[in-house]
């Protein structure tokens, strides 16, 4: 392969990954290139599946030639030739499963620097030894708090759990956590022997006695006298406090049932030793600028920058003196602070100043996580690299997207190329070059419709992108509906919402808007979901497990809803065994269809035989997975197609059964669009298929594993599954950014469905950034004005035309421009 790096283009020849149809395309380097097209058209297959995958493959080949054979097994991208391809870095959106210990500080590597600062330049208590940087990390043996092992919380018992009914006496079983039967009677005898009244209601015992009974580590032995009818001989009984008993069961019991029972009495509480900071007291005693490292970790980044900036700007710093108690005005302090402040400034530029270093990565939105990664890359000083980005603007308010674009421009200016899969037409307009793929999705796409400077796309008739980019698309006209009543929430507090009152109109489409961190998700996916779900007796969705109790003064209007439906972006399943067909339930109909064929009946195959989860029907080599793990030490979790079934997942006998000349594996391989024709006579399946097409998912394959779906696709599958129930009603639908990751043409489809739900009597509330969608809403609740502490208030509420004029709203100017 000839590689001429003086050529300013990356030249792709014969790309055929997934649906790409033998694509030839030339893409400029040192430019910002937007890859556009409706979802499923093949943008990611070209940008990630071909360009990035090939760059990655070449990199591994160069560092580990012996890996070649293994890499071949995994499969190189389907492309004849690529020339001029620089090394690539991918910044993908997919919500991975970040480890629960990763935080904003570890993701950005700022934590390392901060620990170095405390180690070298902190102020130590008199006589204390200087600590290694490691000692400030909860993730090292040297630093982790010994009580909670660096987790920041411990399981502990609480009085309200141990004693659910304080009106009972000990004899009546007040201490629910104590064992029952003989052991329980024994403990009661011991308590009696200790002189505590076991017939008084629990709440009337002295505080000292109650605490001792529940929490003491003491285990006095008491001589128990013989009791007629219970014990014949006296003996020495050993006391166990309720906590000691519960902890003993949790630590030592082999009985799953006992352990489960014991778990009912414990709750995670902040670690009493480190107060949740996860590090040891010696490290917490060290300060910088008057703060411990735990305090700095808990501060918003904007405050951290303000705290350290004076040191970074210190004019004449001295050298460090070994053994000195403080290194705060030394050269080391100035250097490290300057580095920290410069890095934090990038995050502030990106509108993330409200995050703290200690914030768990599992609680970040994908948009926040991607901006953190971009900021980290920006400081890494690489040049001559292609950054392949997945919709950097997704999930961002237009006011947050602007600074991000400035940062991307800086990446480009320092000599890199940016390949960006993008749907936001405002971002596409700023690109130097656009590669538009289409015209449709799946088999209806996969061609390059245009590759060149943005202006030239105007003349490409068949491009959906061109229609939206140059304003040729027909806007969806509808007149705003009026609310049919209200849900009033008063005095709501959670995260940055503090004593806020919100009124949500009924039987209309409401968009909740505001910059990143203003409180939209907290309000919609947590507060509304918990309040309405709680009223309906539905179990509240388990968020990150990290959210504090909801505080709410008053709510009215809850009785207007008979159902709550939360349509979020969480995966529809975590294993490749769940897929589109299984999730929507249509696979049951397909399996029944195969079982009803003559061939299946002759062989005695039932519907369960056609499941790839059942031993009779599935391929034994891969146990019905369709792929097998490939041993690649440096690429954990790499898979290759199963050598026996080649991905079909079934054994040969099962595949001999056909319906209309297709076996069941071939049906799973069909896109929804084709299956709609193929299964037209199967009512249960065709209803699902129709709703999937209605939300723009006609390009997905029926067997597409849950793990391959983007968050936006998962969300639309959930919505389609809801739509297929299609009943009139008074449900509350809550959606978090349903349009993220969608082409404007797909957004139009989706929004039509949401309006359909409202027409059927339901209430829909969406967290939304897309201005076209906000413009078609009946009502807007704008939160802000800023993120974090600068947000959390209702800035304006009303129909879109009024929000566009609202003073102090970050959304207003953008909406005004759009509604012109
Ligand atoms: P876009 O990025 O434009 O949304 P993709 O490149 O993700 O589109 O998908 C293009 C087509 O390739 C779709 O029909 C999709 O279903 C299919 N596809 C995507 N990933 C895979 C895969 N791992 N295996 C087979 N087909 C795939
Ligand atoms: P939005 O959806 O508008 O981007 P969020 O509701 O996600 O805003 O966040 C509002 C505020 O609450 C932000 O300051 C954010 O940092 C904080 N926050 C969100 N989730 C958590 C959490 N799990 N723990 C602590 N703070 C959180
Ligand atoms: Zn601790
Ligand atoms: Zn197999």
Descriptive tags:
single chain, 820 residues, alpha/beta, Rossmann fold, ABC transporter ATPase like fold, Helicase, Ruva Protein, domain 3, 5 domains, six-stranded mixed sheet, 26 strands, binds adenosine-5'-diphosphate, binds zinc ion, P-loop_NTPase
Structural summary, described in words:
This protein is of the alpha/beta class and 820 residues long. It has five domains: 9-95 and 368-469, Rossmann fold (3-Layer(aba) Sandwich); 104-152 and 278-349, ABC transporter ATPase like fold (Up-down Bundle); 156-270, ABC transporter ATPase domain-like (Helicase, Ruva Protein, domain 3, Orthogonal Bundle), CATH 1.10.8.280; 486-570 and 728-819, P-loop containing nucleotide triphosphate hydrolases (Rossmann fold), CATH 3.40.50; 580-708, ABC transporter ATPase like fold, CATH 1.20.1580. Helices cover 35% and strands 17% of the residues. It has a six-stranded mixed beta sheet with strand order 5-12-13-3-14-15, sandwiched between helices. A hairpin with an 8-residue loop joins strand 14 and strand 15 (447-452). The mean pLDDT is 88. The chain binds adenosine-5'-diphosphate (2 copies) and zinc ion (2 copies). One zinc ion binds at residues 145, 147-148, 271, 273-274, 278.
Q: What Rg is obtained from the alpha carbons, in whole angstroms?
A: 31 Å
* Proportion in β-strands: 15-25%
The number of distinct structural domains comes to 5
CATH topology of the largest domain: Rossmann fold
What CATH first level of the largest domain would be assigned? Answer: Alpha Beta
- Which regions have little confidence, pLDDT < 50, spanning 5+ residues? none
For the report, how would you describe the main beta sheet? 6 strands, mixed
Bound molecules: adenosine-5'-diphosphate, zinc ion
Distance between the termini: 53 Å
pLDDT averaged over residues: 88
Helix count, DSSP H or I runs of 4 or more residues: 30
Annotated CATH architecture of the largest domain? 3-Layer(aba) Sandwich
Percent range of helical residues: 25-40%
For the secondary structure, the number of strands is 26
Q: In what order do the strands lie side by side in the largest sheet?
A: 5-12-13-3-14-15
Structural class: alpha/beta
What is the general shape? Answer: globular
CATH-level-4 superfamily name of the largest domain: P-loop containing nucleotide triphosphate hydrolases
Domain ABC transporter: 487-810
Subcellular location: Cytoplasm
GO molecular function, one term: zinc ion binding
Main location: cytoplasm
